[in-house]
Amino acid sequence: YVVYKKKYKLNDELMEWVAAYITGNVEAVEKKEEKDKVCLVLDFNDKLADLLYSCGTSGEYVIMASIVNTYLDAYDADFFEFTINGEIFESGHVIYDEPLGFFNVNN
């Protein structure tokens, strides 16, 4: 599992905006349980790809931290996987082919 450990402080307003923006673009949500761990699996439409392509590395980190942490917290899950239109997403900065854990955003 991939757990990002970069240290960024995120603006609460930006996190709320990203969560609201993304929520309307989820095509499917599945919750998988294995060995006392819960993995949330989401399939997004193209709007997430468009958003991630439009920002740099730091912007992508902030957006993904907002999405991942929001969903993990809301669904009480340990890990987060996602696809876009059923396909693994490659942003040019990151290949999202493994489950993600909570992003460390408070330090």
Task: Describe this protein with a few key phrases.
alpha+beta; 3-stranded mixed β-sheet; 3 helices; disordered N terminus
Description:
The chain has 107 residues and is an alpha+beta fold. Helix content is 36%, strand content 25%. The protein has three helices and five strands; from the N terminus they run αββααβββ. It has helices spanning 12-23, 46-53, 57-75; strands spanning 26-34, 37-44, 79-84, 89-90, 95-96. It has a three-stranded mixed sheet with strand order 1-2-3. Strand 1 and strand 2 form a beta hairpin. Helix 1 (12-23) crosses helix 3. It is globular, with a radius of gyration of 13 Å. Mean pLDDT is 80; it is low at 1-10.
Q: Averaging pLDDT over every residue, what do you get?
A: 80
Helices and strands: which structural class?
A: alpha+beta
Strand content: 25-35%
Overall, the morphology is globular
What would you say about this model in short?
By secondary structure, the protein is of the alpha+beta class. It has helices at residues 12-23, 46-53, 57-75; strands spanning 26-34, 37-44, 79-84, 89-90, 95-96. The protein is globular, with a radius of gyration of 13 Å.
SSE diagram, text form:
Layout lengths: L11 H12 L2 E9 L2 E8 L1 H8 L3 H19 L3 E6 L4 E2 L4 E2 L11
Parallel strand pairs: 2-3
Antiparallel strand pairs: 1-2, 4-5
Helix pairs in contact: 1-3
